[in-house]
From TrEMBL, chains A, B:
Gene Ontology BP annotations: isoprenoid biosynthetic process
Ranges where the Thiolase C-terminal domain occurs: 260-377
Protein name as it appears in the record: Thiolase family protein
Transferase recorded as keyword: yes
Molecular-function GO term, any one: acyltransferase activity
Species for this entry: Halorubrum trueperi
Thiolase N-terminal domain ranges (all copies): 4-227
Amino acid sequence: MRDVYIAGVGQTQFGELDRDVRQLGADAVQAALDDAADRASVSRDDLDVAFVGNVGGPADRQRGIVGQVCLREAGISGISITNVENACSSSACAVRLAYRELAAGLADVAIVLGVEKMTGVSTEEATGGLAAAADVARESDRGLTFPSVYAMRANAYADRHGDDDLREALAQISVKNHRNALDNPRAHFHREITKDDVLESPVIADPMRLYDMCPNSDGAAAAVLVADDFGTPNNAVAIEAAVHRTGTYDQATTFGDPGKVGDVADVAYDRSGLGPDDVDLFEVHDGSTMGELLNYEALGIAAPGDGPEAILSGRTERDGPAPVNPSGGLKARGHPVGATGVAQIAELTWQLRGEANDRQVPNATVGLAENAGGALNGVGANTTIHILRAR
Amino acid sequence: MRDVYIAGVGQTQFGELDRDVRQLGADAVQAALDDAADRASVSRDDLDVAFVGNVGGPADRQRGIVGQVCLREAGISGISITNVENACSSSACAVRLAYRELAAGLADVAIVLGVEKMTGVSTEEATGGLAAAADVARESDRGLTFPSVYAMRANAYADRHGDDDLREALAQISVKNHRNALDNPRAHFHREITKDDVLESPVIADPMRLYDMCPNSDGAAAAVLVADDFGTPNNAVAIEAAVHRTGTYDQATTFGDPGKVGDVADVAYDRSGLGPDDVDLFEVHDGSTMGELLNYEALGIAAPGDGPEAILSGRTERDGPAPVNPSGGLKARGHPVGATGVAQIAELTWQLRGEANDRQVPNATVGLAENAGGALNGVGANTTIHILRAR
């Protein structure tokens, strides 16, 4: 397997934007191409292959050839372009497929795009679109939404470990991510909130409240990857592991069990030869604050049951020993579902290059991204983990 | 690159079915697994990776995790499952990705599924769903549908080559494919038609008539692929080439120019070391009869301008020297869009094993499948070609 580097990244503003997938996608692609031209002298003509993550929500009627439409707008056609739809992890899965093409020697230069338009439709349409990433006939149609999946996980967690400080811990995760996003100019939200704001916000699915949940956002992110035979970019960031697994839904499992994420993390750590203590920052899937808390335990940041302590002690703050979501995460950077996976990779890249400006984690050389996609039987339908390292 | 074999295939009935994507997908997967167990002793536990093609039309609300839902129903979870959405070529692209994983040594055994539910919704909903595989904002919303794309190609063809026998040739393609489907028990249509039936059917987009167009169908098809290190299946069929390209939309081009398909075919022929004369049967994308005729010229079955002669002389009939769509093609086997790519591979596999019963092409050892997906600027957005050979 060849070494694979991130040669360039780009991200649009995330938020409620008056732009469609074509415009969002083309902007992110152009930004990543500009970066890759500077770093590794990559031009459009060098691109061998493209993978594009998009979930096709109700807010943009373009389907089927979303990647072809966006990349054409950025002046790219004629190569193999594959649209990947693995729910909220679509573009992390796209990154992984591009990585594998390059690592295996099937191609030398790849571009990956994640793009989503989510705002501008009714809450019913948006919720219905997202619920289509669960089992529609057996779960969504019977009332299960993603907030309720997270609520059931929270309640199962409380049953197992007690709930003394769980609710406070979840609130603090939201406060932290909103604070981190203040320093991220591309974030959806730039508004500091307090623990009380979270704890007094409306209950969505007990115990999850409005400010525990990530927003629906518009946005796009892109990355250019190169194999070592193409050349080593300046200030290179290498992909040390890229692992994707679908859940094992029918094993005896509870909603609170972070099992699969932990299994995938174990594979990623093993492949990279790195462990949790080697990781300088984490970008994880806080579709809700409970998602981030479960990740603490699945990724080895905290022992089982110690998730609340990890946030309440400040360990996962940006200036703590295990910073999680310095970008603001899904909660505050925003969650244009098909774009989030690449946005995480872009954030890690900026951090590992030392270019994250006011949100920079000092001396960061290793970063981990965890992106989740959909749910079946309450279990994450997709878990995708990347480990990146500055070379 | 390692050799990759088709170890097992399966297909459901195609047609208007009272089944959802979960049931259709699981049935096709189970059939392919049964076949692969017989041929190559493949069991569920051997599967390393899965790729699933689905377009997510309006007739089934399941999105995001279609592959995870279908494969779980067939008892498969825990591996990497990627949903691919490249319009009508989604599952041919899925086959190609699986092939590349195996050829490159990233995995040993893969399963590919193509599945689509299209009936049971209004014509408006179905047409709108399909139109989302063109450029929605710039083309579909201005009135372009796929029948009109084919009509513009037909008119451009007539401008270039004359239309003396074009209309009759197109009618004869429909007659041939309906006749071929009489011997395909899984086909959507089992009804012989005449040239007059075609020529008297309603005009959809001049000169294309109703009986020139493929139907909306429900159905699924699946295939199990193995790398040579896993073992050589009994009566093995090898993938000799798997090529996918997106169109080059902004070159000076006309709607009648089959250029890109020809370019992709040239790459596939080159990689396989085979030429058009070596191919014993073709399964091509007759989304309309004009699609099949253009393929004659793009794939080297006929010289430019000689497409009509190829059908009118009987050359592409099942007992002719270059049989095209012995299965009945999209026109009569049916076109559940996400399933068609794998259905073509299944048909080639049965033919190359000598198991196609009453529709068997005698002594077939090499087969070619061409699957098209979507359109931009009137140019095919995706062209995917596989060449298979009996070993």
